[in-house]
Design a protein that fits this description.
11 helices; 265 residues; Rossmann fold; globular; 36% helix; eight-stranded mixed sheet; 8 strands; alpha/beta
C-alpha cells in the first residue's frame, strides 16, 4: 500500500511546490512509483512539470466533485520518473461546489483508495491557504504531512496557526494524523538569520525536522521555467544534490534502504 504524504504550509513562497516536485522526482529516481497530485488552483506543480494548465481537460477538480474517476486523468512522464494528476484554474470553483457535497472534507482520500496500491508514494501539493482543498489534502495524508519552511523570519509566523489546524483535523476527522517531517528550504548560510530560523524550527518541531537542508539556488529557481525537475535541469547543482539526499533520508526513514547510485541522472 502506497505511502501518502501531503505537503502543506499556508504561507506562499516557502518552496512547497518545489519540494513536492523534486522530492517526487528523486523518489522516482530511486525506483519508487510516484504520483504527484496538484491540489492547488494555481496549478504551479502542473506548469512546473511542463504541462500547460490551460490545456488540462480534466484533473483534480473533476475528481473532487465526482465528475470523473482519477485513474484515466493521471499523466505519466517516464523521463521525469513521475506521474501527475494535474490541476487547472477550474479547481478554484471546488471551494464553492464542495460546500453542498456530502463528506466534502474527505473527497480526495476516498478517490485515492482505488489507486493507492499502484504507487509507492503519493505526494499531494496543497494551495498556500487553510481552505477546504487543504483540509482534503491533510485528511488524505495517511502517512503524515511534510511542512516546508523557508529559512526566513516571516516563515515562522504561521507555524502556530498551521499546528492548530492539524490538531483540529486530528480532533474531528483523523486522530492518527502525524507530521512526517519539516523541510527547511532556501537556506543561505551566509546569514545569521537563516541559522537562527533553523534553530527555532527545530525547537518548535523537536525531532521532526529533516536533517537535509535545501539551499537557496538560482538553478532551482530556473528549473520550473523549463518545465523540468532539478534532477533533469541541473543534476550536478547543490540543490539537486540536496533534494537527492532528502529523498534518501525519506526512504531510510520509511525503512527502505537503497544503495547510492554510481551515476547521476
Amino acid at each position: 500500500m502506497g505511502r501518502i504524504y501531503t505537503l502543506v504550509n499556508q504561507k506562499g513562497g516557502v518552496g512547497k511546490t518545489t519540494t513536492a516536485i523534486n522530492l517526487g522526482a528523486y523518489l522516482g529516481y530511486y525506483g519508487q512509483r510516484v504520483l504527484l497530485i496538484d491540489l492547488d488552483p494555481q496549478a504551479n506543480a502542473t506548469s512546473c512539470l511542463g504541462v500547460d494548465k490551460k490545456t488540462v481537460r480534466a484533473g483534480t477538480y473533476e475528481v473532487l466533485i465526482g465528475a470523473a474517476s482519477i485513474s484515466p486523468l493521471i499523466l505519466h512522464n517516464p523521463r521525469f520518473k513521475l506521474s501527475l494528476l494535474p490541476s487547472s484554474p477550474a479547481l478554484a470553483g471546488a471551494e464553492v461546489e464542495l460546500i453542498e457535497i456530502e463528506e466534502r472534507e474527505s473527497r480526495l482520500w476516498k478517490a485515492l483508495q482505488g489507486i493507492r496500491d499502484r504507487y509507492d508514494y503519493i505526494l499531494i501539493d496543497c494551495p498556500p491557504s487553510l481552505s477546504i482543498l487543504t483540509v482534503n489534502g491533510i485528511i488524505a495524508a495517511r502517512n503524515g504531512v511534510i511542512i516546508p519552511v523557508q529559512c526566513e523570519y516571516l516563515a515562522l509566523e504561521g507555524l502556530g496557526q498551521l499546528s492548530q489546524t492539524l490538531q483540529r483535523v486530528r480532533n474531528t476527522f483523523f486522530a492518527e494524523l502525524a507530521v512526517r517531517g519539516v523541510v527547511l528550504t532556501m537556506f543561505d548560510g551566509r546569514t545569521k538569520l537563516a541559522t537562527d530560523v533553523v534553530r527555532e524550527v527545530r525547537r518548535f518541531f523537536p525531532g521532526q525536522v529533516f536533517q537535509i537542508i535545501i539551499p537557496r539556488s538560482v538553478r532551482l529557481a530556473e528549473a520550473p521555467s523549463y518545465g523540468q525537475p532539478i534532477s533533469i535541469y541541473a543534476p550536478e547543482s547543490n540543490a539537486a544534490k540536496a533534494y537527492q539526499a532528502l529523498a534518501r533520508e525519506t526512504l531510510e526513514g520509511d525503512g527502505i534502504h537503497i544503495p547510492i547510485p554510481e551515476v547521476a541522472i
